[in-house]
Amino acid sequence: MPLSADERDELQSSARGLLARDSSSDRVRAVVADGPGFDRDLWHQMVELGWTSIHVAEQFGGAGAGYGDLAVVLHELGRAIVPAPFLASAVLASSALTLADNDALATELLAALVAGESLAAVAFASADGSYQLSRLTTTWERAASSVRLHGSAGFVLDADVADVLVVAARDSDGIPALLAVERAAPGVRVERAATVDATRRLFSVSFDGVVVGNDRLLCEPGARTEEVLGQILAVGMIAAACDAAGVTEQALERAADYANERVQFGKPIGSFQAVKHHCANAAIAVEASRAATRAAAEALDGDPGDWSTTAAVTASYVGPACSEACALALRVHGGIGFTWEHDSHLYLKRAKLDEVLFGTPSWHRRRLADAVIGSFEQQEVRQS
Amino acid sequence: MHEPGGTLEDLRRRVREWCATHVPKGWRDQQRGVSHADLIEFLRWWGGELREAGLLAPHLPKEWGGGFSIAEQVVIAEELARGDAPRNALYHVALFNVAPTLIHNATTAQREHFLTGILSGDVWCQGFSEPNAGSDLASLSTRAVRDGDNFVVTGQKVWTSWAMAADWCMLLVRTDPDAPKHKGISCLVVDMRSPGIEVRPIKQATGSADFNELFIDGVVVPVDNLIGAENNGWAVAQGTLAAERAIVVLEMTERLRRNGIEAAFTEAARWRLDGGEPALSDSTVREMLAECHADAEVLRHMLNALIADIIRGADVGGPSAVIKVFYSELLYKLMRYVTALQGVAGQLAHPLLECSGWETGDWMIDYVHSFGWIIGGGTNEIMRNVIAERMLGLPRS
């Protein structure tokens, strides 16, 4: 059951309160500088508040609420630029297990994920960061009662802290498969690919003849796997957009505060229209992104047949709009906004990563065009 | 006759069926290049069709021919757009600006008199802007001097849409020149047949002339035609029009989706790029059109959120300004992209089509026309000030 409007407001204010206290930008800077790259104490609080269970079905130990509610948390995590394996584990991996067909496996793994006792990640991009199945660089082959994995996947979020990796691979005929693999299994190698945005951690994961049992297949290889992978990608695109909307909302608030406080020529700089209009343009992007991401998250609680187009619409608009708004917010700060000490660059870098994390805006738009043109053709067929 | 109540699906089906049988076939071709008199006659006829169907004023209270919930109004607006109904342009000011203002501010007698007229086909115009009071509207200087039971009004207005066909004008005048500028303005209703009124059409950049200069020379207006209190005209004019405006933009967004973006996808299959390939097979072209499509979807989500906020009674001054800017910049962007894609063939001139809204199919003219929305109703630059001041709390410029 989705949360009521009041419950959702409460979720939002408790999330905002916790993160303002325990994930200030000073704290974020300290956390990413050393250790596992995230704050385990904060993570346990997030688990206790039930954030890892929100959209997971009750049969798997979740709260059985929905993506519309999960989006509230994602937005707040973005606002506070929280470094945490939430997107990797609680969103992508949990969704993959929930959406696929291997209920025994889902039952086994999700309980620990929801309880925060283990972490998971999803490796479904090619080594060069493409989400087109035909370009996957992880391969699989059948061997007796098991599957062997070769090759590598790129740009995998939080792979080093994951206990389980959900891996997409294609065989020599191009048939895709989706498997759950222990990160500690022999032949799995995880290597950090440091990114300019330090609040997110990406890895390349390679597989050297890794043996995986057939019972670890999340669903039937082929068309069904392709469908599930498309759904996981849609969830990722919408989650990244929710994050970007939160990041940008915070960047805008900081810029507006600065424009009100900073005095030049005897007035607050926010009274100059050049500054004011930068802020207004960022506010338009934030309003639109908030509306778009809320609607998209609600759509994830509806017919999965619509997810791909919804995600393409959302990513086409939100990614570029938010990164541009964060750029404006940085510019409003003038010289101070260009310093390492100031937080503007943290927001900008995270929004820029969100913009391309699950494909470029250009790719999202081309896929959207394909869908729009396809829907016209269907209408014509129906009418004739 | 459509009535409020019942299910939304049922209303949608009925309005769709009504459009299929009542929207005149081929009106877009027939109305191209017609004289202004013929255009006005066509729009009067179309307004009458809507009135008979009960679709003229769904946003007004039930006693004034409406009573439809906001959700029902959304359905009606969507279906009129989807059915490619002519835009009810001639009555737009009367129905969406004047009528709600009267309902909120007029006396019972005024409402009875003027709203009855609006519902039986009176055309209204709105005399707000002046040559020296555009973005700074509150500095307007058209004077109204009290003389017994009358005001005597002298001044000049500009950008007055449909003044040449109007029966009435809702006019902002200065009644107290000594008060601070927002506090000395009153709102009057002026009979457009009064001696001393002169209307001169202004030809717009598109070549059409549906707005005008309005010269007012010693026009006598009865005190009974004062709307709201004397010197309270600024508040009257700024009244609670948010819901009506949101529905208007929603209808225009649906028209933009259908007649703008969908049409661009369809036509791009026919356009040839310089190299001879169909524009739609070019990935950059597909990206540009998809960008507009995504923007329009996002605008619909924003409108849905705005309408929900209006129903909840939230202050939507800032978000309404966001939507005005977003819609008009999207309209402009689509026309800018399409005119660039069409190449020189898109520069050929055709007789004007003036009653379809902003998507006539003549992309170059539509491109020029799009500035009307960027500038009209408060320029987007002023709107950005409003957004920054109301939503972000920045100081006034």
CATH level 1 class label of the largest domain in chain A: Mainly Alpha
Shape descriptor of chain B reads globular
CATH architecture of the largest domain in chain B: Up-down Bundle
N to C succession of SSEs of chain A: HHHHHHEEEEEEEHEEHHHH
Query: How many domains, in number, for the residues of chain A?
Result: 3
Q: Give the domain tally of chain B.
A: 3
Rg of chain B, Å, rounded: 22 Å
Number of helices of chain B: 12
Extract low-pLDDT stretches of chain A.
none
Order of helices and strands of chain B: HHHHHHEEEEEEEEHHHHHH
Global structural class of chain A: alpha+beta
Integer average pLDDT of chain B? 92
In brief, what are we looking at here?
The complex is a heterodimer of chains A (384) and B (397). With 384 residues, chain A is an alpha+beta fold.
List the helices and strands and how they pair.
The complex is a heterodimer of chains A (384) and B (397).
Chain A lengths: L4 H18 L2 H9 L6 H9 L18 H13 L6 H14 L3 H12 L5 E4 L14 E6 L2 E12 L6 E7 L5 E7 L5 E6 L8 E12 L9 H39 L1 E2 L2 E2 L4 H28 L6 H26 L11 H13 L4 H23 L1
Parallel strand pairs in A: 1-4
Antiparallel strand pairs in A: 2-3, 3-7, 4-5, 6-7, 8-9
Helix pairs in contact in A: 1-4, 4-7, 4-8, 5-6, 5-7, 7-8, 7-9, 7-10, 8-9, 9-10, 9-11
Chain B lengths: L7 H15 L4 H4 L5 H18 L16 H13 L9 H14 L2 H12 L4 E4 L15 E5 L2 E12 L6 E7 L10 E7 L5 E6 L8 E12 L3 E2 L5 H5 L4 H27 L14 H30 L4 H26 L20 H13 L4 H13 L5
Parallel strand pairs in B: 1-4
Antiparallel strand pairs in B: 2-3, 3-7, 4-5, 5-8, 6-7
Helix pairs in contact in B: 1-4, 4-8, 5-6, 8-9, 8-10, 9-10, 10-11, 10-12
